[in-house]
Write a structure and sequence with these properties.
alpha/beta, six-stranded mixed sheet, Rossmann fold, Alpha-Beta Plaits, four-stranded antiparallel sheet
């Protein structure tokens, strides 16, 4: 695996269960020792210069690993001290307010819901003001409203120059948040790509045309467009690349012109573009084949 992540970007690492996402993050964060290779964080080798490297890193793990009988405030403050940072009640308050935990600051963790406990994990990771933040499935088991609140917090961190590495099973989360996408499968990077470029390159669009009158077969003049006719003959489906066939001989404009010339009248049309989930599933299936 060879991967560079840019300062101040949100990088989403996607992959099926067991692909190696958590193992990779654990190596970067110093929880697992790599058997070979080199990992640097802002120029600091994570093994030779581990104190400097780890001060820069915050980690939100998958598991809820909090001290059940401690208060939210003490838990987050203690985590800051573990990284050698001086006490800063103002910063702890800022973090707790940003995560809607301020009203729970004196509550013991055992009294909190699962979603609240996950917020505490994020607060702990932010307590020492890291410049690189790893979010290992941070919104697992969190309701939709809270998930969107967390997205807003992550965006503000990115705007402040924090580098975010996100692993998630919620494809819409990566589609909503990420600047770049990496896909990992069986311990290897399948690809890394700018999100917009990835969807443009590998995505596809479908144009569904509902006809005024059903057809028995696709007219010969329309065969170059590789149209699919529904069983009842009332719908033509045109599938094309999100970029390659927008224009030109087999583009949408050309298709509409060919339909008119062939005397095929269209009553309604509907378009659909591949989501990141479609692309991800397709890539993993190709790699597994």
């Amino acid at each position: 695996m060879d991967l560079d992540i840019q300062r101040g970007e949100i990088f989403a690492l996607l992959g099926p269960n067991g692909a190696g996402k958590t193992t990779l993050i654990s190596m970067i964060c110093g929880l697992v020792s790599p058997s070979q290779g080199e990992i640097r964080v802002a120029g600091h080798d994570i093994q030779r210069d581990y104190r400097a490297a780890r001060k820069l890193i915050g980690l939100v793990p998958q598991e809820l690993t909090n001290e059940a009988f401690e208060t939210v405030w003490n838990t987050v403050s203690f985590s800051r001290g573990l990284f050698g940072r001086p006490p800063s009640p103002a910063h702890i308050e800022k973090v707790l307010r940003a995560l809607s935990l301020w009203d729970k600051r004196n509550n013991r963790l055992i009294t909190l819901s699962g979603g609240m406990k996950r917020r505490v994990l994020i607060a702990k990771a932010l307590s020492h003001e890291p410049r690189v933040l790893f979010l290992d499935e941070p919104t697992a088991g969190v309701d939709v409203a809270l998930r969107r609140e967390m997205w807003q917090v992550v965006r503000r961190l990115r705007d402040d120059g924090v580098t975010i590495i996100l692993t998630t099973h919620y494809i819409e989360e990566a589609e909503e948040m990420a600047d770049r996408i990496g896909v990992i499968n069986r311990g290897e990077l399948v690809l890394t790509e700018d999100k917009a470029a990835l969807m443009d390159k590998l995505g596809s669009k479908q144009l569904k045309l509902t006809l005024h009158a059903p057809l028995d077969a696709v007219p010969q003049a329309l065969e170059p467009f590789e149209l699919c006719l529904s069983d009842d003959g009332e719908i033509l489906t045109y599938t094309y690349s999100a970029s390659a066939r927008e224009e030109g001989e087999h583009g949408v404009a050309a298709l509409l012109g060919a339909l008119k010339a062939a005397g095929v009248r269209v009553k309604d049309l509907d378009t659909r573009q591949s989501s990141l989930e479609d692309i991800f599933v397709g890539l993993i299936q190709e790699e597994s084949a």
